[in-house]
Each structure stands twice: as structure tokens, then as C-alpha cells.
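Fig. S4 source data, part A: sequence.
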Amino acid sequence: MDQYARTFIVRWADCDANGHLRNTGYSEYAVEVRMAYLVEHEFGLAELKQHGIGPVLLREEIDYLRECHMGEELTVTFAIVGLSPDGTRFKMVHDVWKPNGKQAAHIVVLGGWLDARVRRLTPPPDALREAFEKAPRLGPFETLPPAGQR
């Protein structure tokens, strides 16, 4: 399946003192893409709150490959590269692409679903787990350990 993607225009507020996209800007665009995917699958903020869960990142790694500047159009992709059998944990990648087809960044995140009441990882509702199982995938795909195991 093709990757899920969204396009952004780098704003002045997204830039650092060197005049290019600040490091946290890459992460913020990736978050926007993940949340857009969830909203499209009927798991926006209200639905997550209703279920008493929220996404939490356990690790984020970013390889910065090219500078991005104010006014540039960037396309950010999203694909799942790992899930635990119960859906508690997920691993995904985001790639940031410049209009000339060159890759600007590669982001890998490991996360899980946090139960807001007990503050522990928890399996997501079935519909949310199914949305992640149907999400675009890149290989090789990794089976992650469930919560409580490493």
C-alpha cells in the first residue's frame, strides 16, 4: 500500500535562527500527519478522550538529510513498520520530501497507547487497532513486544 502523506508550507514561525526549519518542526509535521490519519479513521481527540487513551511516544529518532527553508513545500509521509500483537505498541516512519524529490529527513517513532487513568500502556479499542493494522506499511515489518515486555 502507498504511504499516507500530507503537504506543508514551511512558515516563518517554523524556522530557527539559521533561517531553516528548526529541529522540532520536523517532529511537529510528523505529529500532524499521524493525527490526520487518526482523524480520518474516526479517532480524533474527542474519540481518544472518550476511550480514555492517548498516543505516547517512547522514542523518536530523526536523521536530518537536507535543510528546508521558509516558503518551501514539504511532503511528509507516514507508514507503520511495527506493531505488537495486542496493538499496545507501534513503530512508524515518516519521511520528509522536498519538491525536487530529495529526502530532507527520516523519522522513526516508537510509541504506544496510554490509559489516561492508570498511566500505563493499554491495548487500543478494536476499531483503532484495525485502523493501524490497515495503515500503509513499509518492510521489513517488526512484531513488537506487548506492554510490560521489552
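Fig. S4 source data, part B ends here. The CA atoms of residues 97 and 103 lie 5 Å apart.
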